[in-house]
Design goal:
With about 110 residues, this protein is mainly beta. The protein is built from no helices and 9 strands. The structure holds FE2/S2 (inorganic) cluster.
């Protein structure tokens, strides 16, 4: 798997989303502290607008979601599945952090 470093871990505020680029692809990264690090394609599948990083993270039935700021659909932080509409899945992106920083799986171009 190829990894692209996007930032240092200190650049991610805990509990909020941050927008980043993986090459030309907009990515939303969520640092939930001890609950983990998550990344989805930042584009809202309903509108094509890059705004999921600005969504509210919430827990529903023990699962973590981001609530799209525009139409309020909930996207699962791990699978990208939309709670309200199975045709609107967000694309999950593999993310990891180590001492050097935060990494996304895939090529930066
Ligand atoms: S933001 Fe929590 S339910 Fe939508």
């Amino acid at each position: 798997m190829n990894w692209t470093q996007v930032c240092e871990k200190e650049a991610l505020p805990e509990g909020a989303g941050v927008a980043a680029w993986l090459g030309s692809r907009p990515v939303a990264i969520f640092n939930l502290g001890h609950r983990g690090l998550y990344a989805l394609d930042n584009r809202c599948p309903a509108t094509g607008v890059s705004l999921l990083a600005r969504g509210q993270v919430c827990e529903l039935a023990g699962e973590l979601y981001v609530c799209s700021p525009l139409y309020k659909q909930h996207f699962h932080l791990t699978t990208g599945e939309c709670l309200e509409d199975t045709e609107l899945n967000a694309i999950p992106i593999v993310v990891k952090a180590d001492a050097a920083g935060v990494w996304l799986a895939g090529e930066g171009a």
